[in-house]
Prior knowledge:
Helix content is 50%, strand content 12%. By secondary structure, the chain is an alpha+beta fold. A five-stranded antiparallel sheet has the order 1-5-4-3-2. The protein has a two-stranded antiparallel sheet with strand order 6-7.
Amino acid sequence: xxxxxxxxxxxxxDHIFDCGQxxxxxKNDDGxxxxxxKGKIARISLRDDLLTIDNCDENDFQEVWREYLDLDTDxxxxxxxLTQNDDDIKExxxxxxxxxxxxxxxxxxxxxxxxSQNNNIPRIKGCIEGICSRFGRYIGEYRGKEYxxxxxxxxxxxxxxxxxxxxxxxxxxxxxxxxxxxxxxxxGPEEVRKMLLTAENPIEELQRFCGIxxxxxxxxxxxxxxxxxxxxxDVWMRRVMNRVxxxxxxxxxxxxxxxAEHFGEYGGIAQQYLFYYIRDLK
Length: 282
């Protein structure tokens, strides 16, 4: 099965799947990406303005991929908003012109970004793959590879540090186990997600969970809750905010204030343009 969607704008698979927002997509030799979302496996590519999703029918596209790829959001309008009064961000927006914020599963983002702490992307991907293949629900086979989902909180909470040792999570292992139990105690990830969507400060609320600090909470808020105003700050963002806007690298408070005042409701999208730009340029 192959689904083709025409007239796709502001979309680039490298920009989307290699900008640090997701860790379960792998690039193929032909430039396409294969990964999973909501229990579905797909191979996604773009040629000119034709989006091709292999292993997908009309129902899968409407029920999963249309929302996941954020295809109904007008990114050209967002770019115009971000750049109309900010010449400094124009180069970053132009460089990462095809970035879209994926609408990821909330629990998956919690697990992924707890693992991401003080870690590099290849190791993050390896750890997540190890957890899924050992403890996750079997999704299916695609082109000779078996795919598994992120383990549910009930499964994760029942594991021990020894169980997770082969995955090489280090100090992050007990964080995942404890957070999984906290999620269960609060009614499960979906109930927690609903609570956070109505919370006045979801980033602050997320930090009640084990192993979640301000940066991880901001990432979960942006990628798992769809809060486009969240502005995650790590070493790369401190660097770019210093180089582009002249803010001291240690002054995270001023960076957050600047983002709120100048990027507003699209702070998270601005962050992705800036992050992709500075990380790629080194």
